[in-house]
Give the backbone structure.
Amino acid sequence: MENQVTNEPKHKFPTEIVDLPSKGLLYPKTNPLSSGTIEMKYMGAREEDILTNTNYIQSGVVLDKLLDSLIVSKTPLKDLIIGDKNAILVASRILGYGQDYEFESGGRLYKVDLTTLKDKELPEDVDYSNGNEFYFTLPASKVQITFKLLTHGDEQAIDAELKGLKKLFPNGNIPEVSTRLKYLITSVGEDRERKVVREFVDNEILARDARALRQEVKRISPDIDLTIKGDGGEDIAIPISLNFFWPDFES
């Protein structure tokens, strides 16, 4: 992060320019995120009010409300690629409560310096010239598709669809995996009709192909590495919840 104290009146909070793991490559040129950076302000008492807002917490939107308040750039939160959003969440924590973070995992207490977390390296063999759309041939069926990396807006749409399905089928199995695939895949054999994509996922895609697609998405997705090494060399995931921003919060 590059410190950038603004020349605004003194009552304004200083801001930081945060680098995005995607380097802006996945956004249209007309989107401010295509610069590869985003401007954020330091956390204040207003943001602590957001973090303790019971309605926000119960409805699951507290972190979204926090980011909406902290992001200075005129960028809709829904446009953010998930990996970029993760990096912004970490930056928000550093700006609010500092770089040191303690968390418990497997009955052990871990401490991490958040400023040491690194962005995932973008694969050199991936063509990012089409923005957030990528060609992929499913290895088993040999069907060519295009897919995109999910944005925060996509995740919200997926959550809404799954909640709707739970209401319709309260005792049934909710198809979370296939629902996500329907948002990931943007075309099948050059056909971009959403109905065609959904029918392909429901009736044709093989389990081996679905797994290969998920692996490819994970491989090429920009992100910040939210793991540290345990004593045995295993990866320990750093949890991001309300406690991440509000150390004294009792869930």
In short: DSSP finds nine helices and ten strands in the chain. The chain has a mean pLDDT of 89. The CA atoms of residues 242 and 249 lie 7 Å apart.
